[in-house]
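Entry 14. Structure prediction run on the chain below.
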Amino acid sequence: MDKIAGKSGRRKVAPPHLYFVGSAIFHYLGPAFAVLLFARVSVIGVAWLRIVSAGLVFAVWRRPWKVLLTRSPARATTIALGVVFAAMNICFYEAINRLPLGTVAAIEFVGPVGLAVLGMRTFRNLFALAMAGAGVYVLTDVRIVGEVAGFAFAFANAVLFTLYIVLAHRLSRFDDGLKAIDRLGASMLVASVIITPIGFVAVMPNLLDPVAILAGIGVGVSSSVIPYVFDQLAMERLSRATYALFVSILPATAVVIGVTVLRQIPSPIEMVGVALVIGGVAVHREVGPNAAVIDKSDNAAAACA
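Output returned:
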């Protein structure tokens, strides 16, 4: 029993940074596989497979519909997050179907950097936002000709991703006796219902293609189950601004995965744009009471490790 308690205690105080390692690996690995799947299934069809397969996993694993049936103050936020999930996945896939994964990721994370700046207004943070904005400007200037639709979807996805951070962080902080992961699963069920009217029609020609269906399920698990669960575990212990800061390092991950999986080799000027975004993230620092809380939790985790 002591061993079990010890292991459980160690999990409870695990540094939130560890959850970001898992989230960073899968956050763009799944979408990279989705790009490869576009050759067999339409973009909307892949988005439907991703959301619905993730929703089914959560349904079997957590039975999250009880969140929607309970008169909880979190129910409205849960439904709102489901709407964001559906719209965000469609915009993201439409964007990466037209633009390199690293470019879409860099645009995606300007919103979270701005959100982090709102959490703590300092000259340093404003400079960080300026760097990130300059990076996106460079990336946009390189590819805007002939890719207007791609950038429109990319910027729409950036707005929706910022809303995801706000809503998911709020969802992780409700104290109504329900687990944050259950609320996340309920949001995925809402997203499944919303996207089905257009997504199911798009995937119908592929229903007898077992390779496409299994690949779509793999995309759903690696894109919408693993990283979102890790996000919730991290959000339970981080302020919204700090979470937005940490998650903003993912453009570098997207570039690496784009190169290794999709052979999307960025040009030197595109690397400059991505580097500016990452530099803006590095320059920003979370200060004040929230940072002190995180430092103490990390020290406690290190002592138990």
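Residues 1-11, 287-305 have pLDDT under 50 and may be disordered.
Filed with the rest of this week's runs.
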